[in-house]
């Protein structure tokens, strides 16, 4: 059992006990709150600091985070709320219609949530845990935490939720939604005539000069703390609204935060002034152009870049805009550029969104949110249907290396990938600066406990009518966001989702896309998706008739991961024909899957011992026989398990044949390649292994694919299908069957072109590893019939 598995086991038990405590808390009647004393909180604070420093050697170590406990958010505006003091709170209870005024009297600390130590106007104290505060995800720098939440910072907490902790002894406030925590300045009108029992003991020592804030902001920006930098510059602007440079600096921070509309508002505000120096005008135009580019308004960005004074950057930016405009118009993306970006570990891919005119959103009477994607004309196999950049995405390498973040899904009682929390955090940050995006995200399906979403998706990244400060303009509903993520997020793995061999189910990227979220699921879909960084491409895998639904697969191909998906996501049985057939043959399906799983474990063990995963000839053929036998009742269905078993035999025999120069054995290997392709669902395979024609006819026959151009199998790892065709071609080269070698090379090309696109150059680049040292027929034209 791996460390992660052991942790998972531990956490399953832990979740159970936590669930029991949450359930118990719900049965406790709300009673007047027992508040801690200042010295108790001081001791808690000191203890936490010491604990952090000692147990973790200065590093953050392991943290556990939960999702799916129905987090709470306030939906009532402050003007409609009335003040409540700590001493009047009940616990456990959410105080609807109330707000609490408080301020910090100790520095904030972080466990998973940010812990605040608060005193209210009566001088009473309590701790509060706040989740999803933008800019503070996995923050370990105390100075930054202090800059974000200085001692003495005044807050208004909307509809405070007093809870009991896990031991049911300590009372604290829990704030799930960051828009429920309102940052107030001492000058805020709400604080007029409001006295505090204890004097404000901390003076922040900050100058009020706008220029000082400029310098503070610059430092924070340089360290990558864009939100804090924007806050510093905002404070400077409050002191001197005429400082254009602060607006432009803030626009740059907003661009980094992907708050493009807000950045344009700042730049436009500057550009609207009559008294601008040419340098400031130039800078403002540049900022506005970059922000237009960020929100994919490439024509507007182009016009702005073109209006700049000549310069090297001007030309390169113009060229970029033109490239994006071409992509946005035609959907023609450079597959090689996408692959190179992926290989360079660039996750933030620069490519224009594009939706083919061949698809459109349609309403559906069933299936969750009630929308679906349909073909608006006949679609051919291998057509690119969609290019879509993620609304938000998080990858493992972005996570803090010094901290193991274990995330448990409270609802499903299982571990989940930590990047899911990171994405939730990114979404809240994005919504903070792009209030209009809330409508976009709210239009995604959020499960049966929320009203059905509208039929259309409102566009995002609107430009505010005036510059905005970096605080929430609209409420965040974290509960809804969690549900949206649960029902719509993808794991943007490099190739298509294929999880049976994934070793660590708690790692892996998470992304939320908008348009791809409208595709419904099928276990035998007619379209497939692939990701390059944070960009998803969707292609058809078969001809689709006008008016038919276009579906993708949400999950891995194996039985178990599909069953998990249905339970967790669809909430019902999948209605595809594959599932129907499997339901009719439950024991055969389970039997095959058990054999497969056992074999995967054996493969892992062999690999750990530095051997070939497939094992000896006896082992592979023995396993194949068992799978063939088990698969008989399901013979009509494509089978990943049967495919993999044939592939293993092929690899094993091919290797042996090449070492021994054993031609008959090589032919047997080739036949297993044919069988593998057939098991995957490729039809009408020409399984001859000797020359078919000679002379003039040869050239013509060699152009004909060695199988029929039907549906591309989505039930197996597709890349390996292409590799099989390449290996069959190479085997025919080694036995001098030129014509067959050409046909199978074309077979590999066709499969690759339909699935990945990008032509021959992309085939060579994308399959580079598989092609290394493999003898393929030369001078073959990249055409097929
Ligand atoms: C990503 S959304 C798909 C689009 C959704 N229909 C909408 O209108 O937003 C996923 C949800 O659609 C529904 N769904 C998708 N495919 C389904 C299927 N094959 N069977 C049943 N429900 C499905 C489930 O409710 C699932 O949680």
UniProtKB/TrEMBL annotation:
- Domain of life, per lineage: Eukaryota
Q: What name has this protein been given in UniProt?
A: SET domain-containing protein
InterPro entries with a match to the protein in the record? Gramillin-biosynth_MTr, SET_dom, SET_dom_sf, TPR-like_helical_dom_sf
Q: Which SUPFAM superfamilies match?
A: SET domain (SSF82199), TPR-like (SSF48452)
SET domain span? 357-555
Family annotation (PANTHER family): TPR DOMAIN PROTEIN (AFU_ORTHOLOGUE AFUA_5G12710)
Which organism encodes this protein? Sistotremastrum suecicum HHB10207 ss-3
């Amino acid at each position: 059992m791996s460390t992660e598995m052991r942790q998972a086991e531990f956490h399953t038990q832990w979740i159970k006990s936590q669930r029991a405590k949450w359930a118990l808390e719900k049965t406790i009647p709300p009673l007047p709150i027992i508040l801690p004393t200042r010295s108790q909180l001081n001791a808690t604070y000191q203890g936490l600091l010491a604990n952090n420093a000692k147990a973790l050697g200065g590093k953050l170590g392991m943290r556990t985070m939960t999702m799916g406990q129905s987090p709470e958010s306030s939906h009532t505006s402050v003007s409609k709320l009335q003040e409540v003091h700590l001493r009047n709170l009940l616990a456990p209870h959410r105080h609807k219609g109330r707000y609490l005024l408080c301020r910090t009297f100790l520095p904030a600390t972080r466990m998973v949530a940010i812990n605040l130590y608060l005193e209210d106007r009566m001088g009473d104290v309590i701790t509060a845990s706040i989740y999803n505060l933008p800019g503070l995800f996995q923050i370990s720098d105390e100075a930054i935490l202090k800059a974000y939440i200085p001692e003495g910072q005044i807050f208004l907490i909307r509809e405070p939720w007093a809870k009991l902790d896990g031991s049911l002894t300590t009372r604290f406030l829990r704030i799930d939604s960051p828009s429920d925590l309102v940052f107030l300045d001492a000058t805020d009108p709400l604080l007029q005539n409001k006295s505090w029992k204890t004097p404000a003991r901390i003076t922040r020592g900050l100058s009020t000069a706008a220029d000082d804030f400029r310098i503070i902001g610059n430092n924070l920006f340089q360290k990558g703390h864009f939100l804090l930098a924007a806050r510093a510059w905002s404070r400077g602007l409050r002191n001197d609204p005429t400082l254009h440079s602060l607006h432009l600096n803030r626009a740059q921070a907003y661009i980094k935060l992907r708050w493009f509309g807000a950045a344009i508002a700042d730049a436009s505000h500057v550009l609207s002034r009559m008294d601008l120096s040419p340098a400031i005008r130039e800078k403002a135009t540049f900022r506005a152009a970059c922000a237009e580019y960020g929100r994919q308004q490439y024509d507007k960005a182009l016009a702005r870049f073109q209006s700049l004074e000549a310069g090297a950057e001007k030309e390169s930016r113009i060229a970029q805009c033109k490239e994006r405009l071409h992509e946005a118009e035609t959907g023609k993306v450079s597959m090689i550029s996408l692959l190179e970006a992926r290989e360079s570990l660039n996750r933030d891919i620069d490519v224009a969104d594009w939706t083919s005119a061949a698809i459109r959103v349609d309403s559906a009477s069933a299936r969750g949110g009630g929308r679906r994607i349909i073909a608006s004309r006949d679609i051919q196999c291998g057509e690119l249907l969609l290019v879509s950049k993620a609304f938000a995405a998080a990858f493992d390498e972005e996570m803090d290396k010094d901290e193991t973040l274990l995330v448990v899904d409270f609802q499903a009682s299982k571990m989940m990938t930590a990047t899911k929390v990171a994405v939730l955090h990114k979404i809240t940050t994005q919504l903070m600066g792009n209030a209009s995006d809330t409508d976009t995200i709210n239009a995604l399906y959020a499960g049966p406990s929320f009203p059905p979403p509208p039929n259309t998706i409102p566009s995002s990244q609107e430009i505010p009518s005036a510059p905005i400060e970096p605080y929430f303009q609209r409420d965040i509903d974290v509960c809804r966001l969690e549900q949206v993520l649960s029902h719509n997020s993808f794991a943007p793995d490099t190739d298509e989702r294929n999880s049976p061999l994934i070793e660590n189910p708690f790692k892996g990227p998470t992304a939320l896309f908008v348009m791809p979220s409208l595709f419904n699921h099928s276990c035998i879909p007619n379209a497939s998706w692939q990701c390059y960084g944070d960009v998803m491409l969707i292609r058809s895998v078969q001809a689709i008739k006008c008016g038919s639904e276009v579906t993708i697969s949400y999950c891995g191909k194996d039985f178990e991961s599909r069953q998990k998906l249905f339970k967790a996501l669809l909430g019902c049985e999948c209605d595809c024909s594959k599932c129907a057939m499997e339901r009719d043959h439950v024991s055969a399906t389970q039997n095959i899957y058990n054999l497969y799983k056992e074999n995967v474990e054996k493969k892992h063990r062999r690999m750990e011992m530095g051997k070939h995963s497939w094992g000896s000839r006896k082992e592979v053929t023995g396993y194949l026989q068992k799978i063939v036998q088990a698969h008989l009742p399901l013979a009509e269905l494509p089978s990943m398990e049967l495919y993999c078993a044939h592939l293993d035999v092929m690899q094993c025999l091919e290797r042996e044949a090449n070492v021994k120069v054993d031609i008959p054995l090589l032919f047997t290997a080739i036949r297993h390649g044919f069988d593998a392709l057939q098991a995957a669902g490729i039809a009408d395979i020409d399984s001859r292994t000797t020359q078919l024609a000679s002379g003039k006819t040869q050239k013509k026959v060699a152009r004909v694919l060695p199988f029929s151009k039907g549906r591309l199998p989505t039930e197996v790892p597709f890349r390996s299908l292409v590799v099989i065709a390449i290996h069959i071609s190479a085997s025919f080269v080694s036995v001098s069957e030129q014509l067959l070698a050409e046909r199978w090379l074309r077979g590999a090309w066709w499969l690759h072109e339909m699935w990945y696109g990008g032509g021959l150059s992309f085939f060579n680049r994308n399959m580079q590893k598989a092609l290394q040292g493999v003898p393929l027929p030369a001078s073959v034209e990249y055409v097929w019939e």
